[in-house]
Amino acid sequence: MNSEAVVFVVDDDAAIRDALSLLISLHGLRAQIFASAESFLDTCRSEWRGCVLVDLQMPGMSGLDLQAELKARGIPLPVIVLTAHGDVATARAALKNGAVDFLEKPVDDAVLIDVLRNAIELDAERSAAAQARAAAAERLARLTSRERDVLRLLAQGNQLREIAERLEISPRTVEVYKARMMEKLGCRTLADVVRAGSELARE
Amino acid sequence: MPGSGHLLRAALFITAYVLIDWLSYLQPVLQLGITPWNPQTGVALAFLFWEGRRGAFAVAAAALLSEIVVRDVPAGSIAAITTSIWIAIAYAALAEVLRRKRTSFLPSPGDAARFVGASLVATLLVGAGFIAIMLAMGALPGEVALGGVARYWVGDFNGVLTLTPLLIWAPQWRAGLAALRAHWREALLQVAVLGATIWIIFGLLSDQALRFFYPLFVPMIWIALRWGIVGAVVGALVIQIGLALMVTEAGMAAPLLDLQFLMLTLNLTALLLGAAVSERQRAQEQLRERDAALARAMRFATAGEMASALTHELNQPITALVSYLRAAEMLAAQPDARLPETLDKAGREALRASEVLRRLRDFYSTGAAARAPLSLARMCEIVGAALHERLRRARVQLVCSLDAGLPRVAADPTQLEIVLHNLVSNAIDAITLSADASGRIDITAAQRGDDVLLSVVDSGPGVATEIAPRIFEPFVTDKPGGMGLGLAISRSLLRAQGGDLEYEPVAATGGARFTLRLKVAQADEQ
User: Fold this and answer.
1) What's the pLDDT tens digit per position in B388-404?
2) How far apart are CA B394 and CA B433, in angstroms?
3) Model-level pTM greater than 0.90?
4) How far is B315 from chain A (nearest CA, A)?
5) Which of A183, B54, B182, B390 makes a 20 to 30 Å CA pair with B230?
């Protein structure tokens, strides 16, 4: 499990904060507590990894408010909402807004830890995917426009001779662009080139 | 086979009939023994009412036996047998008519009038038939026929009016006595006044009793107003018995027949007045029952809200408790020095949960309809605490500015709490709907003589003008999803305690002002 992942416990009830953070830490997860949604948002940073376990009913901002605010700020932390009422309407609203899960108090620790681990894993996957995308974009940015053309045409399945004809350059020059492009992207096989080409198409 | 029960009742009836006829055998005339008051007829009609048509045989037997024992068969045995059968048939028919309306026997003026009408016709027929039979037998000279019918009729009619309703109500006597015991002082005073009036009119002024009869109406009206139709009938019976006693014991010489016509007027007046009073009392009773049903409905509504709040309040400590215990389980396995501390925390959470339950028990054990002296400041505190969560979520400020010198009020604590809870809850809804950022609810109070006026003023949009005049009627509401019962119930709860609830718009802000009028607790209640 990701060592930097933290469960951010947001609850206005001191005893619940204390008990949940103790239980979570005993299960080998890191926990950090906040007494209100506002204090969490004040310190929250986009590079934080893990998930948010938030109480639905709190003075000031509710759990749903916090969830909406995180979404608005583009912070992708998964949110798990805790509630004392098994209120179907509220649960639906929370899940529609992208909450990972909805737990009813009092919550069984096995279920809680399971849900938290899933959320942390989801967050890690999301963040890894985002990182890979960022790296690929960065590498593509280093290509010249000719190298990009060659990459795109190669990824579409064209032969060197066809590319030379389309670009109105000699097949020899195409070879040179291809070699430079593959070196810049760190591609070793044609399959790597096709994959990089799909990244280009997405841009 | 009618069974032994019927035969026994028939035997008892015949004995009673003859005995009563003998006791009331006063001032007989026309050598036929026609008396001016015939209570035995009232007994016979009630007997027929209970026993049905089969009772007619016993009535015929009783009438015949009475002719023999009391009157010594003045017109011969054939006349005696014929008249007895005639009496039995006629009254059995009247009893049939009355039985058909058994469920609504006399509670309303309409029923009382129908009873009087049917009895009047039947007694007139019986009297006319009796005299006709006697004329046919040659037992009477023709010129006294009309007077005979009149005498016979007034005697029987008065007997029926004074005794039949009372006997038909026999199953409710026990309840009636219980009601009497609850107000025995007043009943005793009424009996004393009635007795004194009877003694003065029929005893001291017996030779002018006809002229001085009318003051009897005063105690009779008093009794009828207080006790309804039952009081009217019992009062009439007391006067009749008093009159009979004066005739037999004090040797009163007043013309009993003329007095019986006056008695008839008195009986009819009291009976119809009593029926009107009874009907009103019953209507008030139904109104109170409906109010009680509304109050129960409101209690349930409040209970639903309570249950929701309670779930939240209880789940908080239980969540912490469960988490601490799970943690303790893991700490015990390691082992870890944090274990005792964690278990201690778990214990404290369990106590916190029980505290929530204790508060709930206190809320419900405040007792029903007890008018205890109440501190309004305390009441506002309780309601504010109960609605704390909703006020906070709606960002509404509840401000109770109550003067420390305000006297305590006499009211049922649970009911007053329900009313206040409902008003503040409505105010929160109104403010939330208006989407006003600075919502505020003010509770103020002032003393006005024996009353305390408590106002709940909100900064919401007020009640829509088109429904404002009807806002206290059931099922009238301007709240989406509202039942429209809260204010209706609140007002009836307060009115039942001698208070009231009024609405007026606040001109300056457009908000709503609800004013509760409550009674100041008396010194001995403080």
Assistant:
1) 877 887 888 899 888 87
2) 10
3) no
4) 6
5) B54
